[in-house]
Amino acid sequence: MNALIWASVAALVTAAVLLCLPRVVGRKDHSVRAGLRLRSLVRRLRGGGGSIPPEQLRKDSAALLRQFSALLQSGRGEGQAWGDLLAHWRRRDADHPLTLVCAQAAAAEASGTGTAAGLRRAAEQTQNRQLRQLVNRLIAVTALSEQTGAALSHLMEQLAGAADDSAQLAAAVQTAVAGPKLTQLILTLLPAGGVVLGHIMGASPTATLLGGGLGMLCLIAGIGFLIVGRLWSARMIGTVMRHV
């Protein structure tokens, strides 16, 4: 019975380590992401808001762009529109990443340096890749409107449509990778379940695996193949998610 308990504990620990492994050996910006998660956790413990999920940020970005377009169509100037957006997003969530964008744009308009200068500061201050892409597109659209005379409100509507398409694509990819992620989890836990099942059936797989000789060789080879398979599948899933 004690052997069964120890085998179960060892199997669960091994599975937990493997489940965490892709996060440790993942993308190059892991340290940045870890810092952002830590700051988000501290902010939540202090009563503040947490980080915004990527899909929600896309939806919020589209909403902000349509709000900006509607304000421009109503006759508000860029400075007034950014001021109104800042007031709205501060009431909604003062810690929201888009609140920072509105604050920088409104401050730049108030100081006379122009929206583009404020948006560039917002892009420099954020480490969120999606938010930086949105801000850079805002800068490009603003410059295009100034150079060609095209209606900024119309360009914002088109940009909002692109943000909606991006959100739908991300949701479709999330749905598509749900199956592979579940398969990855099952295959990771399967060996541990096999060891536990062997003890339940009255066999002694732990003694065989830890008894040296061929059993130990099989244990080492099995763990090695399990780690390689976990890394391989995590890399394939990560490659798909990285482009969303």
From TrEMBL:
Q: Which residue windows are transmembrane per the record?
A: 209-232
Keyword Transmembrane assigned to the entry: answer is yes
- This protein's UniProt keywords: Membrane, Transmembrane, Transmembrane helix
Q: What is this protein called?
A: Tight adherence protein B
Species per Swiss-Prot/TrEMBL record:
Garicola koreensis
